[in-house]
Amino acid sequence: MNPTLNVEVTRGGMVESTHCVHIVVASKDGLEVWGDPARLTFPRSAAKILQALPMVESGAAARLGLTSTQLALSCASHGGEARHASAVGAWLGQLGLNHECLECGQHWPMYEPAGREMAAAGTPLSALYNNCSGKHAGFVSLARDQGWDIADYIQPEHRVQQAIRATSEELLEAKLGPMGIDGCGIPTHANRLDDLALAFYRLTQAKSGARHGAVSALVSAHQSDAFMIGGSGRLCTQVNEKLRDGMVKFGAEGVYCATFPHAEIGIALKAEDGTVRAAEVALMWLLKRLGLLDPGALPERLPELLKNRAGVTVGEVRVSAA
Q1: For 262-276, how does the pLDDT look when each residue is reduced to its tens digit (9 = 90+)?
Q2: Which of 55, 148, 224, 269 is 20 to 30 A away from residue 302, measured at CA?
Q3: 5-321 sits in which CATH class?
């Protein structure tokens, strides 16, 4: 039985809540595991670098003249801030398209101040503010470059999704597992957590050719354009800005995946109950434990302090390995 990793929430000197986190770290030395490595996990948005890979690896990104900012947006779960929405809109304009081609749906910005600013200014809501609009612009870009019909690009049988499936299965060295539909409408598949970690490890083993170039460009974009990955106050942005190697990416329901090409490490992490704060604290603990993040980086994130409405610290969220 592998040891579990527990994230505790304290208040008044006692543990109020405990979250179980499953982690697999894959490297040339094998697997390091906390919890259940066989847990079937939907990676959700943590898999966006895999979903962007066909666009870059095929040469479509280069032929379309996509920038590092656009590559970052293709992997983003952004907060819907003005910089995000305008950048996605400009990208679609570069393709001769607009937000009406996006099939991700629309919602108010995840970054609440941006939504309040929009409401005050009377800015109309559109799919540009969807946290996955950049990823969808990437899907449309691949379809446009390849001469495929853009309509219904979110459907499992569309050639965009089939290209993602082929790339994902190649990296997993396994068939994609049970299918669900993600929040933005595309297919998402549940696979073993250890297979997900190994897929992100295999990204580091591409040492030459189109795969190497694509991974390098996407990883670099996470660091150089980290704001586009998440935005104000987001851990993905804060961590990617600090990394000297690799990238990390959050997915809904408490998932993180990461790849570190120089260290040759792949990571998959899942909070059993889907709690974001547990996944974030566990990720910070893991990155510092592995020496992938400087020990003094983002001290406010490990432990994460709990404050009341008056701003007084009343507890903390911390790791307690059992």
Answers
A1: 999 999 999 999 999
A2: 224
A3: alpha beta
